[in-house]
Amino acid sequence: MASNGSKGGLLTAGGILSIVGGALEVIGGLVIVALAIGARILLRLGLPPMHPGDWFEHVMPFIPVIPMWLVVVGGPLLVLGVVAIVGGVSAVRRQSFGLSLAGAICALPSPTIPLGILAVIFVSLSRREFEAGN
Fold first, then answer.
1. Residue 80 is assigned to a structural domain of this protein
2. What predicted TM-score, i.e. pTM, was given to this entire model?
3. Which residues of the chain are under the pLDDT cut of 70?
4. Rounded Cα–Cα distance for residues 46 and 35 (Å)
5. pLDDT recorded at residue 90
6. Neighbouring C-alpha atoms within 13 Å toward the C-beta of 125
7. Does a structural domain hold residue 31?
8. Is residue 11 part of a domain?
9. I need a surface site. Which of 41, 51, 69, 101 has the fewest CB within 10 A?
10. Is 100 helix (H, G, I), strand (E, B) or coil?
11. Is 99 inside a domain boundary?
């Protein structure tokens, strides 16, 4: 009986770690996308007056490219975060092992990588919890 409680705790912990990692990814993705939108708005309105110097002449050609790269990085991070949260909820509810494992894997690129690693380990070790529930 002690092993069942331990395993259930591992699955719940894995689900919660996946949710936390996914939430951090969503927040990071939103911040990156907001920066991209803000940079795009600044480009449309015109850059604020700056003192031209050596650094400005070197940076100016890259400013139009920055918003697109931010969207390329922020968008997938946002999607991975949502999948990690959905997978974490699935793990806590013990609904679908595949979705729970996918969510834990999607939590890997979170700002705190050990959360994702532990989530994958805990959900993987608790596979029998899903089989017992069905």
1. yes
2. 0.77
3. 1-8, 43-66, 132-134
4. 16
5. 95
6. 18
7. yes
8. no
9. 51
10. helix
11. yes
Domain carrying residue 42: 17-133
The total number of structural domains that make up the chain: 1
d(CA 110, CA 106): 8
In angstroms, the CA 54 to CA 69 distance is: 24
Tokens of 29: 């993705």
The model's pLDDT over 76-98, given as tens digits with 9 standing for 90+, comes to 999 999 999 999 999 999 999 99
Tokens of 43: 């480009």
Distances (CA, A) of 85 to 75, 91, 130: 16, 10, 18
Place of tokens 């100016």: 60
Cβ-based burial of 115 (10 A; exposed 0-12, middle 13-18, buried ≥19): buried
Question: In angstroms, rounded to a whole number, what is the distance separating the alpha carbons of residues 25 and 109?
Answer: 8
The identity of residue 2, as a single letter, is A
Cβ contact 110:117 at 8 Å: no
